[in-house]
Amino acid sequence: MSGAPVVVLAGGTGGAKLARGMLDVAGEDLVVVANTGDDIELYGAYVSPDPDLCTFWLADRIDDRGWGLDGDTFAVMDGLRELGVDVWFNLGDRDLAYGVHRAARLREGARLTEAHADIVAALDVAARVLPMADAPVRTSVLTGGTWVDLQRFLILHRGAPVEGVRIDGAASTPPSPEVLEAVATARAIVIGPSNPAISIGPILELRGMRAALRAAAAPVVAVSPIVGGQVLKGPTADFLAHTGHAANAAGIAALYDGVLDGIVTDEPWAGALPALQCATMLGDPAERRRVADATLRFAESLR
C-alpha cells in the first residue's frame, strides 16, 4: 500500500457494494465519502442512512435486505406502533442506537464527522467513512406538485413521478476538512455506481467540491450504475429522465462533465473520455473485488 488514499464517493447500495470491494483492494487506504442529503431526524435519533449503509457493508454486517444490520431486531418500532405512532421509517434497534448516539454527540458539540467516526470504530471498520459535510444538506423531491424530503419520497411515494430535485444547503456548505484533505492527497478518486442525482449529486453540489476534484492530482473515474442496459435497483432511471440524460454511460458521463478523467462501463464506448469496458455486476464478493481492482488499476493508469 502506498498510504495515499483511494477515495470512493458513494451513496446507496451500488456505491456501498463497490466500497466493500475496494476495501479488499485498498485496505486501510480506503476513504469513503458518503452522501448525507438523505439524513433525517426522527425517533429522537439522527439517522444518516448512506454513511451507515457504507459502514455496515464495510463491516460485513449487512442484512439480507441490503441496507440494515444483520441480526437486528425491531422491538422499539413494535413498541412505537403499540403507542399509535406512525412508523413509516422502519429502523432496527441497533441502527436506532447508533442514531441516538449520533444525536447526543451532535448536541454535545461534536461534528457529524466525529460522531460517525464513533460508529465506524464500534464496528471495527479499518477504512474511513466520512460524511460529505458537517453542516446539514437536505435533498427534496417535487412530486404531484408537492415537495417531500427524500426519505418520504423513496418510502411513501415509491413510483411517483419525479418533477423536481432540490438540494437545500449544498451551495453554501463546503465538504468537511477531512473530505477535502482526502481528495487533495488521493492516488485515485472513484465515483461509485450510485444514483447520480440523489446520491452523488449532493456531494458534487457542495460548495467547492467540483473545484477540489478538478484540482486533485488523482484521476477521477466513475463506475456507471447502468448494467446490461438497465438500472438494477432504485429509481435511478426516473431521476436521470428528469435531468434530461439517457440511462446509459454517456448520460452518466455528461452529468459528471468537468470532473471526470475516465469512466468504467459494461457498454461499448465511443466517446472521447477514456473508458474501461468490463463486467460491472457487484453481486457477490468476488465480483465486487474484481470490479474494484479493475477500476483502481484503470484510474491509476490515467495518472
TrEMBL record:
State whether keyword Transferase applies: yes
Provide the alphabetized UniProt keywords.
Magnesium, Transferase
Question: Looking at the keywords, is Magnesium present?
Answer: yes
MF term (GO), any:
transferase activity
Q: What is this protein called?
A: 2-phospho-L-lactate transferase CofD family protein
